[in-house]
Amino acid sequence: MECFHRCLMDMFKERREASLHWSSDVLVPSAESRMLAAIAKSRGHRVYRANEAEFEVMDSEGNVVVDVEKRSCLCGRWEVYGLPCSHAVGALLSCGEDVYEYAESCFTMESYRRTYGDAIEPVSDNVEWREKVLKIEGGGDGIRTPKVTGGARKGRRRIRPVDDGDRVKRLVHCSRCQQTGHFRTTCIAPM
To answer: Which intervals hold domain SWIM-type (predicted)?
Structure first.
């Protein structure tokens, strides 16, 4: 656990410091590069506007429908990756929209810096833990441990279906006495 704790401390520190040197103010670098690739690819698309929110985008592979209000594209990349695909970028640029506003908030620099902004607090050696626990237990202000209760798990009660009259009951047959209404294991007939 201490190894994980140290790794997390290092990771948070490295990511916090690295984000201070990034040039983009809107998206994290990986999302920024993906967005720039989509912008470059969208230049080869022809965009036709159907109404305020829907567009038909033609590329070399065929026609694709883009709905800007629902943030969806027929290719499915916008929904999966959370960033507008090249079809959506083409549609957004054709109507003068800012494509960066249509990226999911988890890709923004603000969200990234907020995620790694708080530091993982260092933890002292476990020798000091025992001293603090003893002080807390003596004062009565400490962490209360749960009560230990004995006993086995309680069995589950079977919820039986309500007999609505439509259900046909199966007729059971005893293999020992050849009578109906019971099984061999519950048979009381003499042998």
So the answer is: 64-96
